[in-house]
Amino acid sequence: DAGITQSPRYKITETGRQVTLMCHQTWSHSYMFWYRQDLGHGLRLIYYSAAADITDKGEVPDGYVVSRSKTENFPLTLESATRSQTSVYFCASSEAGASYNEQFFGPGTRLTVL
Amino acid sequence: DAKTTQPNSMESNEEEPVHLPCNHSTISGTDYIHWYRQLPSQGPEYVIHGLTSNVNNRMASLAIAEDRKSSTLILHRATLRDAAVYYCIPPGPEVGADGLTFGKGTHLIIQP
Q1: Which of B4, B9, B57, B98 to mutate to test the interface with A (most CBs of A within 10 A)?
Q2: Chain A residue at shortest CA distance from B89
Q3: Other residues' Cβ atoms within 10 Å of the Cβ of residue A53
Q4: Span A82-108, pLDDT tens digits
Q5: How far is Cα A71 from Cα A64, in angstroms, rounded to an integer?
Q6: Residue range B67-82: mean pLDDT, rounded
Q7: What are the residue ranges in chain A where pLDDT is below 50?
Q8: What DSSP string describes A46-63?
Q9: Other CB atoms closer than 10 Å to residue A71's CB: what's the count?
Q10: Which residue in A9, A78, A98, B75 has its CB near the most CB atoms, within 10 A?
Q11: Which A residues 11-30 touch B at CB under 8 Å?
């Protein structure tokens, strides 16, 4: 399917476990992003990637790890999940930097850490 | 820092125009003003963006003040499907060069 997809859509895990959220886009966009959205708040940028093998921190990177070995995939890993990481996670992609280009968002992954 | 100020919520009637204001008094001269919206239980979607002059697309119009310290998103004829949270977003250097800074946005309620 064309577009940007995220998996899983829902995930429940326990404190201390490792969790990986997947993001896949079919447009060959250079840029990909991970945001988190907490109840009643706007989105906050976790990490972004300008191209394969290039990643950079956003506003709230602590506790997260990303990689980008292929242009179309941008997985986000919580190495040791904490309750404060309970959130909805959105992946996005764009042809170039957000300053000038539309970002396309995935449907989100709702993560609950018990 | 490019910060934005939007009303927490606004209400409008179906098939009437809606004007959503945003103040961004600290915006720099090269920052584009972006608007996104988020429908319930969905990811954000792009609405429109502009730099200095007014912009139009199939979804909305964006009116930018001459001093660029404020802008207004205009939905010409609101439908029930336009009920969403609308985010006014000027990209800023504090969130990395290429990320978007989302505030709390304006919750738009459309009455039938």
Answers
A1: B98
A2: A99
A3: 11
A4: 999 999 999 999 987 666 678 899 999
A5: 20
A6: 93
A7: none
A8: EEEEEETTEEEE-S--TT
A9: 17
A10: A98
A11: none
Residue B94's pLDDT is 46
CB–CB of B60/B36 below 8 Å? no
Question: Which pLDDT tens digit goes with each residue over B46-56?
Answer: 999 988 889 99
Left (φ > 0), alpha (ψ -120 to 50) or beta: where does A73 sit? Answer: beta
- Computed over every residue of chain B, the mean pLDDT equals 87
Please say whether the beta carbons of B10 and A74 come within 8 A.
no
Q: What is the pLDDT of residue B97?
A: 54
* Cα–Cα distance measured from residue B55 to residue A53, given in angstroms and rounded to the nearest whole number: 36
CB atoms within 10 A of CB B5: 12
Check CB contact under 8 Å for B44 and A48. no
State whether A45 and B95 contact (CB < 8 Å): yes
**CA–CA min distance A101, chain B (Å):** 9
